Amino acid sequence: MARPTFRELTAQALSSVEHGYDLLAPKFDHTPYRTPDRVLNATVRVLRPYGPFGTGLDLCCGTGAGARVLRAVCRKRMTGLDFSAGMLDRARSAAPDGTWVRGNALALPFAPGSFDLVVSFGAHGHFLPRERPRLFAAVRTALRPGGRFAFPLAAPARPGTPAYWSLLAFDTAMRVRNAVWRPPFVMYYRTWPLTDVRRELRAAGFGVTLHPLSELGVRPDGSPRCRLVLATRLPEHSG
User: Fold this and answer.
1) Where is the Methyltransferase domain (predicted)?
2) Does residue 182 sit within a domain?
3) With contact defined as beta carbons under 8 Å apart, do 228 and 150 qualify?
4) What is the per-residue pLDDT for 166?
5) What would the pLDDT profile of 145-161 be if each residue is shown by its tens digit?
6) Total domains in the fold of the chain
7) How far apart are CA 100 and CA 153, in angstroms?
8) Which CATH number goes with the domain that contains 100?
9) Cα–Cα distance for residue pair 197/229, rounded to 1 Å
10) Is the CB of residue 102 less than 8 Å from the CB of residue 82?
């Protein structure tokens, strides 16, 4: 199947987030937005020594790319959650062995302690900074004590580089679009700084470790281009 056309991408961008992804779903896996296999494989490498896990949740699963990670490290039920029915249809077709649930990541429709592992790929930009504490609290509730929450986080582009200006231009254009057009489409690339994310995870009751995803390369100073953030649910009294 061909990639989405410029007209199709424009229609998505002028829709709500949910409807936009419903429109994009049939061609999503042919866009650069699908999580690359090298990111999934690197995540599996880091998680394997901490497993095997029991039940796993792919949060904001999209078309189900994260199922590869859950299959590799979980022994029991594999679940994906997304708010786009179109994306879930694609995930269900690709991985009928999973349980695919339509729902809101900020109000997870699962009993407390349902999962041993929660992963998420490529969804950060859909949550505003003020929503992160609520998101982290929801994930903590869904995890069993000692459960893990894992997601890759890329290093910020260095000021003045082409990547820096490209991401800044995208976020600026999105803010202008949302200021003049309704419904809003929340997607930003520069709103999850590592320092803030670590602090908010700890405040939500997680212990946090960082693991370089060396397969994804290093920056000129030798630091990793991408890390896996691994947050462990602490006991209540450790909050």
Assistant:
1) 57-147
2) no
3) yes
4) 83
5) 999 999 999 998 888 88
6) 2
7) 25
8) 3.40.50.150
9) 9
10) yes
Using 50, 70 and 90 to split pLDDT, how confident is the model at 239? very low
Q: What is the C-alpha separation between 46 and 92, in angstroms, rounded? A: 26
**Which pair of tokens denotes residue 30?**
């042919």
Q: Tokens standing for 100? A: 């695919």
Cα–Cα distances in angstroms (integers) from residue 204 to residues 13, 99, 139, 200, 209, in the given order: 33, 27, 9, 6, 15
Q: What is the pTM of this model?
A: 0.88
29 and 49 together in one domain: no
* Residue 94 is assigned to a structural domain of this protein: yes
Whether 86 shows a pLDDT value over 80: the answer reads yes
Q: Identify whether residues 115 and 206 lie together within a single domain.
A: yes
Give residue 192's identity as a one-letter amino acid code.
Answer: W
Domain with 3, as residue range(s), is 1-33
20 and 63 part of one domain: no
User: Mean pLDDT over residues 10-25, rounded?
Assistant: 59
